[in-house]
């Protein structure tokens, strides 16, 4: 397995390079001149050209790319045009609320989705199954901004149980910071639970049809033992895959939810960067999200061996 992990980490390098190329090209074809946005609509052409020269944006595109990719290889993602700080520092300064929010949302999603999917599969074609399908469909279908606004209206405005917006860092408020993330965490958790419940139900239904499940029941094992020891263990692999990919999405920045609740996370950082045409921050966020996806995929692959000991990793070809 060690060789497999090393190979996957090596494969991370070309993936990041490809994402870097795409990020550079996309940010140079989107409409809007970042220099004019910085200087305002009343800036003269001379002022625009002078700032472009200072930022190196007056050079041919291929020269800009070579200089930029050289910095990326060295770990230098440049400097934010508006925040006036390094891109790495800007992302790291915003990662705390996003990380905590992602963990809260994923824990709620797993805690609701997995039991709901298992119960639905065990009670297949019953009213419990139909109710589970309805709830999970609602979790997948309801727009996150609408659910966020409803939670704000009920629990923030009417009942005044939780703050409706903002965030205080852990260093300042301690565990009191969590109260700012309860409502957005519930929003994300409900959305995640719908997808996880549907995947768990589907995987469990496939496993419950297998011969070894019937054999276990014929041996006289209690139903809870059959479900917990035999069915769940073999149904977890596709569920863990979905959970891992969802967590990568959340860690990359819950853009809409962070915007609605005015949480200063990586999602709101990326949105502000796009609105202001802050190219270095946009590029840095894209590469950051790509790295999270690759690392989370690696973590999910490794977890397969712990979930099911029958999974073995080949030393040749890096496959599983």
From TrEMBL:
SUPFAM superfamilies: MetI-like (SSF161098). GO terms for biological process: transmembrane transport. The chain crosses the membrane at residues 9-30, 99-122, 134-157, 177-197, 235-261, 281-307. It is a multi-pass membrane protein. Residues 95-304 form the ABC transmembrane type-1 domain. CDD domains: TM_PBP2. One of its GO terms (cellular component) is plasma membrane. PANTHER family: DIPEPTIDE TRANSPORT SYSTEM PERMEASE PROTEIN DPPB-RELATED. This is Binding-protein-dependent transport systems inner membrane component.
């Amino acid at each position: 397995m060690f060789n497999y992990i090393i190979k996957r980490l090596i494969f991370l390098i070309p993936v990041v390079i490809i994402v870097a190329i795409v990020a550079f090209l996309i940010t140079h074809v989107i409409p809007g001149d970042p220099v004019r946005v910085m200087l305002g609509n009343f800036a003269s052409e001379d002022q625009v050209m002078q700032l472009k020269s200072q930022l190196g944006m007056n050079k041919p595109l291929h020269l800009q790319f070579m200089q930029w990719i050289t910095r990326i290889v060295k770990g230098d993602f440049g400097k934010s045009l508006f925040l006036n700080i390094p891109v790495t520092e800007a992302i790291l300064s915003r990662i705390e609320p996003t990380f905590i929010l992602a963990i809260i949302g994923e824990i709620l999603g797993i805690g609701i989705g997995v039991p709901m999917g298992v119960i639905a599969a065990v009670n297949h074609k019953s009213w419990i199954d139909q109710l589970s399908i309805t709830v999970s469909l609602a979790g997948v279908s309801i727009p996150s901004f609408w659910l966020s606004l409803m939670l704000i209206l009920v629990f923030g405005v009417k009942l005044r149980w939780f703050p409706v917006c903002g965030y205080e860092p852990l260093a300042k408020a301690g565990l009191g910071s969590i109260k700012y993330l309860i409502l957005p965490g519930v929003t994300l958790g409900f959305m995640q639970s719908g997808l996880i419940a549907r995947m768990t139900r589907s995987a469990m239904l496939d496993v419950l049809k297998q011969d070894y499940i019937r054999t276990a029941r014929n041996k006289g094992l209690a139903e809870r033992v059959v479900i917990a020891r035999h069915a769940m263990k073999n149904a977890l692999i596709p569920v863990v895959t979905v959970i891992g990919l969802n967590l990568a999405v959340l860690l990359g920045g819950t853009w809409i939810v962070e915007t609605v609740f005015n949480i200063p996370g990586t999602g709101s950082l990326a949105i502000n960067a796009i609105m202001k045409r802050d190219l270095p921050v946009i590029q840095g966020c894209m590469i950051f999200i790509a790295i999270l996806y690759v690392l989370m995929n690696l973590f999910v692959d490794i977890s397969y061996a712990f979930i099911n000991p029958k999974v073995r990793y080949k030393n040749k070809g890096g496959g599983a």
